[in-house]
Amino acid sequence: MKSFLKNLAGESMVSLNLRNGISHFLSLLLGKKSSQIDSELPFVAMIFTVMAASGVSLLESWKKLCSINVLPTIQKEAKDVVRQVEVLGYDTLTVMYKKAEETKSKLYRDFLAGYVSAVKSGGNLVSFLNSKLRSIFEMRSADENRSIEKLGTLVEVFSVMLIVTLCVYLLVIVVYSTSFALQLGAASPRTSADAYILVFFATPLASFIFMAIAHKMRKGTLINVKEPYYRALFPIIGTLGLILAVIFVPQLRFITRVLPFQILVSICLLIISIPSAISYHRIAKKNFSAEEGMPSFLRDLTEARKTGLSPEKSIIHASKRKGHGKFSEHLRLIRDQLEWGVSLRKIFRNIKREIQSWPVLVNFLILVETIEVGGGSTTAFEILSEYSEKNRDIEKNKRAMLKPYIILSLVWSILMALTITSMIYMLTHISFPGLLETPFLTLQLHVDLFSAGIIFQCWLSGFFIGKISEGSFAAGFKYSAILVVACYLSFLISGRLMTSLMVGML
């Protein structure tokens, strides 16, 4: 009987732990979904506001959201709302109120509950939505400022991690490459497997953890950016195979005599980064230009519409403005297609193939819906242009405030190289009483390895900084290439300076 009770208690504890684990996992999923809804909510509120100003019914607004795949989380919510209304026969306001009670997002809950209350009370719906939209953008701006502070803290912690990494590298060099190691009987002129694990696995793993945190905290505006990663795929395979062959195949180690290991690693990392950096630069220039130019285009469109021009002629008039950079080419194509009689819906599909900035795509889609469904009212255009300008200002301010961290990454790359070089010259030129002289070969093997480790760590830091500053790991290719060059040049210049200093002292 006692054993039965013990087994029952054990099974109860297991089931309790299982339930707790499942509930924790579900809470994480709900939290992720909540953050995704919050990031999409300003555009959803804008769509509802513009549709209400255009005289579109509530159910039709939800149906429009079902076709907007650039807002995937809200798209699922919209499909569920439409299903409950058309299949289960519920009232639209009832479904929205149920959604407000179920959601974990406070902003989404307030928006749905406020909408239901405004409709039931018979108030001015457009006025309510406009004030709610203004409140959402103000809260979003405050959230972005707080997120910048959090990202700054994350970068500072990452800097501390790099300092600790540097200290560990120096400690290993001192212990295993100097006369201290000889006293301990470790005089073999070779590099241990532990050192390779430390340099190419342990410290990169810490960087990947920070990248994962940055990915969760920093969301970018570009979607479906795949080309830079595809360009890097084959160079990664080729260079990784070369480095592994040099390390583990004795017949190929003559390569490190022609090219020191740190130069070989630097060249391989640049081969990976440069083509992808060029690809991303082209994509970013086009899309950031579109993000900058879209609000100005919408403002010109709104002012032209106020003069009495039709929506299509207003678009043609607004697209003639110069000074939008790469976006001017897309505006010219839009104007030409309208003059040829191409529908706005087809023009949007063509734009979607070229533009990968989701704020631009959402704004253009709202513009198309406003014209095709609501007739392109002046009030709707005014709302769209006003809040697209606010969204542009928020993103522009965020990027500007995060730019200084790029300089910080250059500083820590240069300082790490200078510190390693200084320690090397101290070990090779300073002797201690009672200790044997350091064998040059033993020291050189470890110096090359850990110098290459510093360069590799700087390369990984570029992806972290790219995610922090621009919201995309693809941006890290250009920063990685810059940091690799800066780090290697620091090794080269500091080495010559230290040599000149030692010669002057002698």
What order do the SSEs take from the amino end to the carboxyl end, as H and E?
HHHHHHHHHHHHHHHHHHH
Count of discrete structural domains? 3
Strand content: under 5%
The stretches of 5 or more residues where confidence is low (pLDDT under 50) are 1-31, 184-190, 431-438
Taking all Cα atoms into account, the compactness measure Rg is 30 Å
Helix content: over 70%
Number of helices: 19
Provide mean pLDDT, rounded. Answer: 80
Assembly status: single chain
Structural class label: mainly alpha
Largest sheet: none
Find the count of extended strands (DSSP E, 2+ residues): 0
Shape assignment: elongated
Cα(first) to Cα(last) distance is 88 Å
Notes on the structure:
- The protein is mainly alpha-helical and 506 residues long.
- The chain has 3 domains: 38-123, no CATH class; 148-287 and 399-505, no CATH class; 288-355 and 375-391, no CATH class.
- Helices cover 83% and strands 0% of the residues.
- The protein has helices spanning 2-53, 58-66, 72-86, 92-102, 106-121, 125-177, 179-183, 193-217, 227-248, 255-258, 261-306, 311-318, 327-339, 344-354, 358-374, 378-402, 404-429, 440-470, 476-505.
- The relative contact order is 0.11.
- Residues 1-31, 184-190 and 431-438 have low confidence and may be disordered.
